[in-house]
Write a structure and sequence with these properties.
2 helices; seven-stranded antiparallel β-sheet; 15% helix; 233 residues; 32% strand; five-stranded antiparallel β-sheet; disordered N terminus; single chain; alpha+beta
Length: 233
């Protein structure tokens, strides 16, 4: 029934408008030389810098190392998220708050949530009466440096509205940009599917953020965020 209601809304809208490596054990004090001490100092400084790093989440990720869609993977991917446990982020904690504008209408409970489909549980956001959602949870598995992250999101046709729609992921307490896509409106229905290499490790239990902003009535189904070793060493 929810799908029919959404499609009806779309038809009405269309009619209205055409870790850093560990320090090595030093051993006995008389075996420590100046080079070892300098290296340890450099690692300590790098750790401090990583803790203080801040990210401009709204600036996006820039170019990504995307795996071509015709490359076949062997073995199974491992889920990074559980679509049953996304928690909405309040505006005061939203890493994408810098993109808020006068037409922003944050989705309310009842307009998003898990929904069972034939291939598993999707996380659906219905942007019929709203246009903004950001959620958060923690990752379920380790992502080694160089491994793949796989994203699959389904959306219906967008027939009206000004500006692009934006989907984005960020990682860590500082919401480091991980993935984003922006498409123009109008846009046909379809599957957004991308596999990309992550150049840094992501430990299990790291916060992960999911954001969408949309112009026009639509439904967004987050199917998968997973990891696969790919050709990582």
């Amino acid at each position: 029934m929810r799908r029919f209601a959404l499609l009806a809304a779309l038809l009405v809208a269309a009619c209205d408008t055409a870790p850093l490596p560990p320090l090595k054990d030093a051993g006995p004090a008389d075996e420590v030389d100046a080079d070892d001490l300098d290296g340890a100092a450099d690692l300590d400084a790098a750790e401090d810098d990583a803790e203080e790093q801040t990210w401009d989440t709204c600036a996006g990720t820039g170019p990504r190392d995307v795996m071509p869609s015709d490359v076949k993977l062997t073995g199974d991917s491992v889920a990074l998220v559980d679509n049953d446990v996304w928690v909405q982020v309040p505006p005061s904690e939203d890493p994408w708050a810098c993109l808020v504008h006068e037409a922003t209408d944050v989705c309310e409970p009842g307009e998003f949530g898990p929904y069972p489909e034939a291939d598993g549980v999707w996380f659906d956001v219905e942007t019929v009466a709203c246009n903004w959602f950001t959620g958060r949870q923690t990752t379920l598995a380790d992502v080694p440096a160089g491994a793949l992250v796989i994203v699959r999101i389904w959306h219906f046709q967008i027939t009206y509205g000004e500006g692009d729609f934006t989907l984005a992921l960020a990682i860590g307490d500082q919401a480091r940009p991980l993935w984003d896509v922006a498409r123009p409106v109008p846009s046909t229905a379809g599957l957004i599917y991308e596999r990309f290499h992550v150049p840094y490790a992501i430990p299990a239990g790291t916060p992960i953020w999911y954001h969408l902003s949309n112009h026009g009535a639509n439904s967004w189904g987050l199917i998968e965020i997973s990891t696969h070793p790919g050709d990582a060493p």
